[in-house]
Design brief:
It contains 10 helices and 6 strands. By secondary structure, it is of the alpha+beta class. The longest helix is centred in the first third of the chain and has 14 residues.
Length: about 230
Amino acid sequence: MVNIDGGYTRLANELYDALIGANLTKIQARVAHAVCRKTYGFNKKMDRIADSQLAELTRLPRQKVNKAKNELVAMNVLIKSHHQIGINKNLSQWSIPDCQQKNNIVTETGTTGADPICHQNADSVTEIETRSERQEKGNVVTKTGAENVTKTVIALSPKPGHTKDTITKDKKDIITPLSPFGDERVKTVFAFWQKNLAHPKARLDTKRAKRIRARLKEKFSAEDLCQAITGAT
């Protein structure tokens, strides 16, 4: 039998209630609770927590933990300061998609007209369609968001040939010519970020390229990173 003599985590009820009711995926929720355990469980608001520590506590692969942690940071559920991380106590800053999770189905709320739903696979939303469309298709999802991202990545990938041939006069106003950084995947991800976050004048400098390469070295594909960017927006 467990008891508080072996230690306990002191957590504000309002914050705990918010975590319970948050529309997070299973992996995101496990990582968020693990961060609480590693901070408030030691009477700290923030601390340096390695992905390996969270992976051990959540019993999840380190790569999935890292991905979920970055998603929580993007949603302002977690906050980072230098090398420390912790739960954001300012609940008004949380930016979580307004939908209700039921088993493997996420039903979006707060909309009018059609009844849109999104089918959730593991820890990522892969499809959004109206109820009428779902009935017409016999409740079968035929197109996933991953396929849409793949098409976007292919469309943004640099075409073979000379730079002057591939960047037309019209395109110069949308995407700034990129400096060569070796791996084409780096330029693809940066171009996707430029377009989706409306930073057409941003440049792919050494610092940004280093961050993208670091994620690629963690075995995330360019498609994975583009999905993360889409989720952040």
